[in-house]
Amino acid sequence: DTEVTQTPKHLVMGMTNKKSLKCEQHMGHRAMYWYKQKAKKPPELMFVYSYEKLSINESVPSRFSPECPNSSLLNLHLHALQPEDSALYLCASSQDPGLAGGREQYFGPGTRLTVT
Amino acid sequence: DAKTTQPPSMDCAEGRAANLPCNHSTISGNEYVYWYRQIHSQGPQYIIHGLKNNETNEMASLIITEDRKSSTLILPHATLRDTAVYYCIVKTSYDKVIFGPGTSLSVIP
User: Fold this and answer.
1) Strands A31-37 and A87-94, how do they pair?
2) For B52-107, how does the pLDDT look when each residue is reduced to its tens digit (9 = 90+)?
3) Distance from CA of A103 to the nearest CA of B (A)
4) Which candidate in B42, B47, B51 is best for mutational testing of the A interface (most A CBs within 10 A)?
């Protein structure tokens, strides 16, 4: 099973709402990632979790709050977003970072977020 | 910043080989070459990666020049479903993935 699942597929939220995006993988991967992708642009890294600990935060505004409850789950909590935060949010996972030979990432289908 | 240079777009006739070039003239000895693709509105998909030897899998072949300053991704028999943006990425095992603009490949019937 090489699948990363993301829910919901689409989300529309107001600027005062609180919502969460969910990502799940059952490949035994110990690194998980959140990316943001605006239309016609490449994905941009937001956060990296390694062994359930936050290892990289790419200076993301605090209105985005990641959480890794266990090795299979990754959440992105959203609060007081702005319309410019509308984008495709992608989750990815990869094997144990300690392995040699590179570590390819497996991506989910993304959540299309619209902030009104 | 991305460490690679790719043409912004390419066309390929259906059934022919698609050869996608990538320049990475500043690659260092412990950096791998990775290829991903993204079909419209889907998540990126890993294709292949290599260090210095040529690699082949069920999806594609990766040819890396001897000096490692450039590489070519080969899709041997392109189909319409191969229409996508192809990203060439150079990184070590522990680096984060930084996507550049990629090459938009259009497979034409």
Assistant:
1) antiparallel
2) 989 999 999 999 999 999 999 999 999 999 999 999 999 876 677 888 899 999 99
3) 6
4) B42
